[in-house]
Amino acid sequence: MSLLLIALCLGAGCLIGFMGGVLGIGGGLIAIPALVLLLDMPQQLAQGTALIMVLPTIMMAVRKYNQQTRIDRRVALAGAGGAVVFTWVGARLALGIEPGVLRLSFAVFLFFIALFYAWQTWRAGSVPPAARPATRKGGLPAGEAPAFTPRRATALGVLCGTLGGFFGVGGAVLAVPIITSVFRLSQTTAQALALCMVIPGSAVALVTYSWAGKADWWVGLPLAAGSLLFVPVGVRLAYRLPERKLRACFAAMLFATVALLVFES
């Protein structure tokens, strides 16, 4: 591997880490289409390589989110426990699918999540401030939304773990809109909890992809090093952005990723 490619991976990792910190996604959604498009990697290899960067990036992001607002550990651990086994199941399924089909499936999944986010952002802007319900700690409207209990977090972890293993990333992307819309937690709180849930599952997925020879460590490690440098900057910005802007950025990033995936196909 040339020094130029290592330097490019470091630079790309810095950008991905910053965006991952802002949006609470670990950066894999950006890295996967970039690896396919720029390095001509098969979809499975791109997903496994992205996980090398994603795992340490998620851990750093969680630490920084927790420094801003304390994460509910019981809920986070319950969600992570539900995700572990099913992440392995999803990863094994993905390894047996033709790369082009997997790529298009990933694009369709992200497209519908992006549509939901765009609708949620528009809806939040269309409701007059006086008509919005009062919230208590964590962004939960008093008396209007179910509590996000460890049992519910476990069920969500099972669903997100399966999808996260299948697509290499994506568990947190699905968890965030569910947590914000069903349980009415704030965007930053949802991003922090979702990232906590996918840490052990991401480790399982990385081992599974690596064992199958679908992870390029020479590319993944420089990406991870660059990403870790800028995750704290991204997390600080996430807490400064207005809620609606943060959701709009999340939706825009998803639509851009879908466009890249369709272009690659």
From TrEMBL:
One Pfam annotation, family name?
TauE
The keyword Amino-acid biosynthesis is assigned to this record: no
- Is Cell membrane found in the keyword set? yes
Q: Which GO terms describe its cellular component?
A: plasma membrane
Q: Which InterPro entries match?
A: TM_pro_TauE-like, TSUP/Inactive_protease-like
Q: Which spans are transmembrane here?
A: 44-63, 75-95, 101-119, 217-239, 246-263
Predominant place of localization: membrane
Kindly give the membrane topology term recorded for this protein. Answer: Multi-pass membrane protein
Q: Where in the cell is it found?
A: Cell membrane; Membrane
Which keywords appear in this protein's UniProt record, sorted alphabetically?
Cell membrane, Membrane, Transmembrane, Transmembrane helix
Domain of life per record:
Bacteria
Family membership noted in the UniProt record: Belongs to the 4-toluene sulfonate uptake permease (TSUP) (TC 2.A.102) family.
Return the protein name. Probable membrane transporter protein
